[in-house]
């Protein structure tokens, strides 16, 4: 009888140990699931905040423009520019009328006459160097405008939207129009060396 009693007590202790182990495992699983959920939420929020279209849509100027409008910091809208596939590329591609613009140019992408940047509609003519790679102007009209070199080569375009984010009705026509006629880069064996760096 005493032996049966000891046997029952051992079984109860084993069950208690098993239940304790199961309880600990459940706690770890629940804790792990919560940690995974928190990590997923943190990365999701981080990606939403980092998304340019989300940031742009939070700005008043981006309301009707479909996003991709330059960020305004300290009363100045900032953009970057580089020569990509022999075309000036402005990022973001939309600026806001009436707000001063500061464009940081990647001088390492420019060579030859491509270093001399012209934005004719806003009176910009500037030779870009690694030590002087900032273009500043205030767009005073909405529409689509061209960026070229001094010879009219490497055309790239950007759009200036109204302060409420709306586009100029003629912007689509301007964008579809042919870029300004350029000179001949390298014609007749001479040329400006546009492609060189």
Content-based structural category: alpha+beta
| Nearest-integer average pLDDT | 77
**CATH architectural name of the largest domain:** Sandwich
- Gyration radius (Cα, Å) is 31 Å
CATH class category label of the largest domain:
Mainly Beta
Largest sheet: 5 strands, mixed
- How many DSSP helices? 3
Beta strand count: 10
Summarize the topology:
Layout: H1 2-50, H2 52-57, E1 71-73, E2 76-84, E3 87-91, E4 94-96, E5 101-105, E6 116-119, E7 124-127, E8 134-137, E9 143-149, E10 156-161, H3 171-176
Question: How would you describe this protein?
Answer:
- With 197 residues, the protein is an alpha+beta fold.
- The protein folds into 2 domains: 1-50; 68-179, Cupredoxins -  blue copper proteins (Immunoglobulin-like, Sandwich), CATH 2.60.40.
- The protein has 3 helices and 10 strands, in the order H-H-E-E-E-E-E-E-E-E-E-E-H.
- The strands form 2 sheets. Strands 1, 2, 3, 5 and 8 form a 5-stranded mixed beta sheet that branches. A 5-stranded mixed beta sheet has the order 4-10-9-6-7.
- Strand 6 and strand 7 form a beta hairpin.
- The protein starts with a helix and ends in a 21-residue tail after the last helix.
- 24% of the residues are buried.
The gist of it:
The chain is α+β, with helices and mostly antiparallel strands. It contains 3 helices and 10 strands. A hairpin with a 6-residue loop joins strand 9 and strand 10.
